[in-house]
Every structure is written in C-alpha cells, then in structure tokens.
C-alpha cells in the first residue's frame, strides 16, 4: 500500500536499523582501513530520536569513537531525501532533518493566565546592577532561581523549573529566534531590548525536549553595532544533520515504501 504511514515508533526503528545501521569507518578516509565498518543503533524516547554511533577506528583519535546525536522530533519542519556519492563512488541516500524556525510564541487569550510569559523590559533590566544577562534576571520573575553553579570561573546558574528535569536543568536560550548555546556573557546586556521567560508547558512545547526546563527568549536591539548574536555564541542548530547510507542499502531504501513511511512519521506534528 503506497503512502502507508508507520504505525509506531518501533516500526520506524526497524526501518532505520534495516538501512542505516551500517556505515563506513571514518578511518577509511585515509585509504588504509576501508574494510572497517562503523555501526549505528537508534532509539525513540519521549519526543526525540537518538542516533548512537560506534566507530572502531576513528580517523582523528586512532581508536574507538562513540557519539550520540539527539534529534527532537517536535522541532522537525521537513524531511528531505538527498542523493550523493562517497569517495568510493557508491550511491548514497541521506535523510536531511530541517528544523522549524522559531518566530515567536503562542499567544495567550488571558493576559492574567498563570501560563503567560513573564516579560522583562530593557528598563527593568537596567535597574539591576549586574554585568551578565543571567544575573539581571535576579528578582525579575517569580519562580526563577538565579545563583552560582560552583564551576571554575563561577558561571551563573538559572533554574526555571527547579531540579530533577531530564538531561540538563538549565533552560533553553533563544536569541532573536535562534536557539543558542555557550556563554551568554558574550551578549552585552545594554543591547537587550527585552527578555521573556516561558514556564508553562503549553508555551514551551514548540521547542520540544530542549524546552523541558523552561525557555528564555532574548530580543536584542537592532541599532547598536554590537547588537544581535555575537560570533562567540554558537547557534544551537542541532537539527542541521543528514543521516546517510551507501551502496546496496541506499538503493533498497530509495526504491522502498519505507522511505515514505519514515518521512511521514518524522514530519508529523507531535504537539
């Protein structure tokens, strides 16, 4: 039945294992270890796809290499099927994960709703005599804890939903609609126009698993020379990822209905 959708995450895992579980070791790039084969395993937990890679001989470390890629399914806007060839001339098929663009937050009908975002203006931020963005949140939003994470250098710790959440306890930071990682101290507090703190699950749902600990939306002023996202603050574009398979597995996947099932499942709206 052409176009049939996968009935469960288990079927998706079976499809991925069938076509994408084997790949060439990165050490084959130097032309000396072409017989070595790396392997992938897959898992779907909550709303995220986990890709676990094992390479027996990494080209850089000269030893075993382990890596985990986490792809929040809620943040997938589109799946594209790409074609290419590897160094050996084998045909390859790639699944390209294209992430959603975050252009704001869902509106609340009632401004007094407990789930409404807490908005902090530049004037309120200026009233706090602090050198970093996180420190300027002290006392600004009920339920938000700001302290020191006791790490070398004394980085500022922000907790929106307390401790015990999945993965890290830190919130997701989104600067000018772009999720970012790294040290927010690289942003000049004087360049910030407003900060919104999202605590309610109905507002953080569009950010998938990374919004589980709350979201801090930072809007910068556009006029200043140093405004916007600095080059020191990396964009957190973890969905800029393509999963490749080569040779016979690529040909079989390209001709199968599994390609349609996988694409439809991953493009579903899980919110």
Automatic annotation (TrEMBL):
Which Pfam family, any one of them, does this sequence belong to?
Answer: Plug
The membrane topology noted for this protein in its Swiss-Prot or TrEMBL record is: Multi-pass membrane protein
Principal localisation: membrane
Tell me which UniProt keywords the record has, alphabetically: Cell outer membrane, Membrane, Transmembrane, Transmembrane beta strand, Transport
InterPro entries under this entry?
Answer: Plug_dom (IPR012910), Plug_dom_sf (IPR037066), TonB-dep_OMP_SusC/RagA_CS (IPR023997), TonB-dep_rcpt-like (IPR039426)
Q: Keyword check for S-adenosyl-L-methionine, yes or no.
A: no
Q: Which GO terms describe its cellular component?
A: cell outer membrane
**Domain TonB-dependent receptor plug, first and last residues per copy:** 117-215
Query: At the top level of its lineage, which domain of life is listed?
Result: Bacteria
Localization annotation? Cell outer membrane
Q: Which family does it belong to?
A: Belongs to the TonB-dependent receptor family.
How is this protein named in the record?
TonB-dependent receptor plug domain-containing protein
């Amino acid at each position: 039945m052409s176009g049939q959708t996968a009935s469960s995450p288990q079927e998706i895992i079976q499809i991925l294992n069938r076509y994408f579980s084997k790949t060439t070791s990165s050490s084959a790039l130097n032309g000396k270890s072409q017989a070595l084969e790396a392997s992938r395993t897959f898992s779907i937990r909550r709303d995220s796809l986990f890709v676990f890679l094992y390479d027996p001989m990494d080209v850089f470390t000269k030893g075993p290499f382990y890596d985990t890629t986490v792809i929040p399914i809620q943040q997938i806007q589109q799946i594209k099927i790409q074609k290419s060839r590897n160094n050996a001339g084998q045909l390859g098929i790639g699944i390209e994960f294209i992430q959603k663009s975050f252009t704001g937050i869902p509106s609340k009908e009632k401004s007094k709703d407990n789930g409404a975002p807490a908005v902090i203006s530049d004037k309120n931020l200026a009233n706090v005599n602090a050198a970093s963005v996180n420190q300027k949140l002290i006392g600004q939003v009920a339920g938000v804890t700001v302290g020191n994470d006791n790490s070398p250098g004394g980085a500022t710790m922000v907790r929106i939903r307390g401790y015990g959440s999945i993965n890290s306890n830190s919130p997701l930071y989104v600067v000018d609609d772009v999720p970012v990682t790294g040290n927010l101290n690289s942003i000049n507090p004087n360049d910030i126009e407003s900060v919104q703190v999202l605590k309610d699950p109905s507002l953080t749902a569009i950010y998938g698993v990374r919004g589980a600990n709350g979201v801090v939306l930072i809007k910068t002023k556009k006029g200043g020379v140093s405004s916007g996202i600095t080059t020191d603050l990396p964009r957190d574009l973890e969905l800029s990822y393509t999963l490749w398979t080569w040779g016979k597995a690529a040909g079989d996947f390209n001709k199968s209905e599994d390609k349609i099932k996988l694409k439809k499942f991953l493009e579903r709206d899980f919110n």
